[in-house]
UniProtKB/TrEMBL annotation:
Lineage: Bacteria, Pseudomonadati, Bacteroidota, Cytophagia, Cytophagales
Binding-site residues for Mg(2+) 2, renumbered to this chain: E419
Localisation: Cytoplasm
Protein residues bound to Mg(2+) 1: E412, E419
Subunit organization: Homodimer.
Xref: Pfam families: tRNA-synt_2, tRNA_anti-codon
One GO molecular-function entry: lysine-tRNA ligase activity
Protein name as annotated: Lysine--tRNA ligase
Length: 572
C-alpha cells in the first residue's frame, strides 16, 4: 500500500479531472521549443523583434492568480521566466475551461506546461512571456518541497536536509537550481582534461569493468559470479593493468575515464563507486608526469575559474606550478620529528604505538608507514604538494628508484589534505613484478584483504616487453570537490550510495484494535488516509471525531459512531 498525503490525493483527483475534460496529462507528441529562459533574459533587450512568436516549456514554480489574468513562473533547464496568462488570450472562444478550470484549479506547482506567445516588459521592468496558447505536458502527482526566497533571491526555508537531497537528487536539482552548477563544472573538468590529452595525441580507450583478477590498487573488491562461464568475477578496483597491456600492444599514450568500485567504508571523501581517470604514456617517467600534471591542472582551473587560485573552505589554493616536492620519509620526519627510513616492521609498530596509531597483525611495513603518514602528515598538505619516493612495500606496480635503495619512483599529489592524484614510473620488469606479486600474496595470507592478487596474464604481457612508461590516476570526484568548494563527495555525485530507506510500517487492523478502535470503524480510518499509528497520533481529536463520523455515514458502515471521549482515548 502506498501512503499518500492529502496533497497527493488531491493531485491524483486533479489528474482524473483533466482526463474527464479530454486532456491527456501525459501527451505522447513532441512539443517544439525554440527558445530558453536564459536566452530571453540575455538577448531580449537587444533583439526584441526576435521574440514575437516563440514557444517555451518548463515546470510551474509559482503562481499569482488574479481573476481573469494571472502571473506565474516556469523553470526550464536554464532558469526561470515569468509568464502572463490572460483568460481571453488562451480561451478566445466562449469556452473558458482551459483558464478557469485547468490553469486555475487543476494545475499546480511542479506541473510541466508548454506555452506559445511573445515577450514583453511589465510596468515594473520585468521581462515576461505573454501566453497566447497553453498545453499541459505532465501532471506531477507529488508536490515539490516549498522553497522560500527573499526579494533578493536568497533561500531562507529550503530543501536542505542532506539525506533527502542526496536520496532525491531529482527534487534537489529542481528546487535548488544552483546545485546544477556543481555538475556543470564537473563536466567541464572532464571535457577540459579530455581535450588536453587529445591535443597531445593520446587515445581514449575502454577497458573491462568485470575482471577475472582484481588488481591495479590496494583495495577490497566487489565480487560476483558469471553463470554461463561458471566463474567468479570482480568489479574493477582500477583499470591500470589493462591500460598497460595496451602500451605493450603498441600505443604510445592511452587514457580512460571510468567507474571504479571498492568494497570499503564510506565517509565525506569516499564512495564505494567513484570516477577515476588513468593515463599511461610510453617513454616517460614520474618526473615528467609531475610537470604534465601541473600543466593540466593549471589549464583546467584557468578554464573554469579564470584563475589558478581556487577557494576551498577558508583557504585559497593556487594550482599554478611548480608544486612543492618532498619525499614520504622526509614528510614524516618534518611533521613528527621521527626518521622511519631505516626502521623494520617492529620499529614501525613501536612508533605507531607511541603516536597512538592503531595497528593490527595483518599490516606489513608498507601499511604501517602509510598509517603514520596518513595520521600525522596528510592534513598539513594544504597547497598542492607532491609526496615522492615511496617505500617499495607500499607500491607493487612502480619501478624501483633509480638512485635510492628500497624506494620506488612514485608520487601522490595532495591538496587541502587530500590525495587527488597518484603516479609512477611504471614497473616493466616482468621478473621483478612477479616477485612483488608474490610478496602481496604473503600479505594476503596474513589477512590483508587489500593485497593484490597474482595476475598471470598481465605478467605474460610484460614478458613480451613494455617500454618505459609513466602512469597517472586522478580522482575526478575529489578534484571536483575542490574546484566547486564542496566538503563532501556526496555533493559532487548525482546519486551517491545511501543506506536503504526506512520503510513505513502499515498498521494492521489488530494494531488499531489494540488502541480500542472498533474493527467496524477501521475502514473509515483507512478512507481518511490514516494507515499508520504515526499518522493516527498526528490527528486533532475534534477533527478526527467529525471525520470518522462523516466517513462512517458515507461508507454506510454497520457500526455506531464513536463518542468524542473514545476518539480522544485512541490518541492518548
Amino acid at each position: 500500500m502506498q501512503l499518500l498525503s492529502e496533497q497527493e490525493i488531491e493531485r491524483r483527483k486533479d489528474r482524473e479531472e483533466l482526463m474527464k475534460l479530454g486532456i491527456n496529462p501525459y501527451p505522447a507528441e513532441s512539443f517544439q521549443i525554440n527558445v530558453t529562459a536564459a536566452d530571453i533574459h540575455k538577448n531580449y533587450e537587444n533583439n526584441k523583434t526576435d521574440y514575437k512568436d516563440i514557444t517555451i516549456a518548463g515546470r510551474l514554480m509559482s503562481r499569482r492568480i488574479m481573476g481573469s489574468a494571472s502571473f506565474a513562473e516556469i523553470q526550464d533547464a536554464t532558469g526561470r521566466l515569468q509568464i502572463y496568462v490572460r483568460r481571453d488570450d488562451i480561451c478566445p472562444e466562449e469556452d473558458k475551461t482551459l483558464y478557469n478550470t485547468v490553469f486555475k484549479k487543476l494545475l499546480g506547482i511542479g506541473d510541466f506546461i508548454g506555452v506559445k506567445g511573445y515577450i514583453f516588459t511589465t510596468q515594473t521592468g520585468e521581462i515576461s512571456f505573454h501566453v497566447t496558447d497553453l498545453k499541459v505536458l505532465s501532471k506531477a502527482v507529488k508536490p515539490l518541497p516549498v522553497v522560500k526566497r527573499d526579494e533578493e533571491g536568497n533561500v531562507y526555508d529550503g530543501f536542505t536536509d542532506p539525506e533527502m537531497r542526496y536520496r532525491q537528487r531529482y527534487v534537489d536539482l529542481t528546487v535548488n537550481p544552483e546545485v546544477k552548477e556543481v555538475f556543470v563544472t564537473r563536466t567541464k573538468i572532464i571535457s577540459n582534461m579530455r581535450r588536453f590529452f587529445d591535443d597531445n595525441g593520446w587515445l581514449e580507450v575502454e577497458t573491462p569493468i568485470l575482471q577475472a583478477v582484481h588488481g591495479g590498487a590496494a583495495a577490497r573488491p566487489f565480487n560476483t559470479h558469471h553463470n554461463t562461464l561458471d566463474m567468479p568475477l570482480y568489479l574493477r578496483i582500477a583499470n591500470e593493468l589493462y591500460l598497460k597491456r595496451l602500451i605493450v600492444g603498441g600505443f604510445d599514450g592511452v587514457y580512460e575515464f571510468g567507474k571504479m568500485f571498492r568494497n570499503e567504508g564510506m565517509d565525506r571523501t569516499h564512495n564505494p563507486e567513484f570516477t577515476s581517470m588513468e593515463i599511461y604514456v610510453a617513454y616517460k617517467d614520474y618526473i615528467w608526469m609531475m610537470e604534465m600534471v601541473e600543466q593540466l591542472l593549471e589549464k583546467i582551473t584557468q578554464s573554469i575559474h579564470g584563475t589558478t587560485v581556487v577557494t576551498v573552505g577558508d583557504k585559497q589554493i593556487d594550482f599554478a606550478g611548480p608544486y612543492r616536492r618532498i619525499s614520504m620519509y622526509d614528510s614524516i620526519l618534518e611533521y613528527t620529528g621521527i626518521n622511519v627510513s631505516e626502521m623494520d616492521e617492529n620499529g614501525l609498530r613501536e612508533v605507531c604505538k607511541n603516536l597512538g596509531i592503531e595497528t593490527d597483525a595483518s599490516m606489513g611495513k608498507g601499511k604501517l608507514i602509510d598509517e603514520i603518514f596518513g595520521v600525522k602528515v596528510e592534513d598539513n598538505l594544504i597547497q598542492p604538494t607532491y609526496i615522492t619516493d615511496y617505500p617499495i612495500e607500499m607500491t607493487p606496480l612502480a619501478k624501483k628508484h633509480r638512485s635510492k635503495e628500497g624506494l620506488v619512483e612514485r608520487f601522490e599529489l595532495f591538496v587541502n589534505g587530500k590525495e587527488i592524484a597518484n603516479a609512477y614510473s611504471e614497473l616493466n620488469d616482468p621478473i621483478d613484478q612477479r616477485e612483488r606479486f608474490e610478496e602481496q600474496l604473503k600479505l594476503a595470507a596474513r589477512g590483508d584483504d587489500e593485497a593484490m592478487a597474482m595476475d598471470e596474464d598481465f605478467l605474460r604481457a610484460l614478458e613480451y616487453g613494455m617500454p618505459p612508461t609513466s602512469g597517472l590516476g586522478i580522482g575526478i570526484d575529489r578534484l571536483t570537490m575542490m574546484l566547486t568548494n564542496k566538503t563532501t563527495i556526496q555533493e559532487v555525485l548525482f546519486f551517491p550510495q545511501m543506506r536503504p530507506e526506512k520503510k513505513v510500517k502499515i498498521a494492521t487492523d489488530e494494531d488499531f484494535m489494540v488502541l480500542g478502535i472498533p474493527q467496524g470503524l477501521i475502514p473509515a480510518l483507512r478512507d481518511l488516509n490514516i494507515h499508520t499509528l504515526e499518522q493516527l497520533k498526528e490527528q486533532d481529536a475534534n477533527k478526527l471525531f467529525n471525520d470518522v463520523c462523516g466517513r462512517r455515514k458515507k461508507l454506510k458502515l454497520d457500526v455506531s459512531n464513536p463518542t468524542k471521549e473514545e476518539v480522544e482515548s485512541w490518541l492518548e
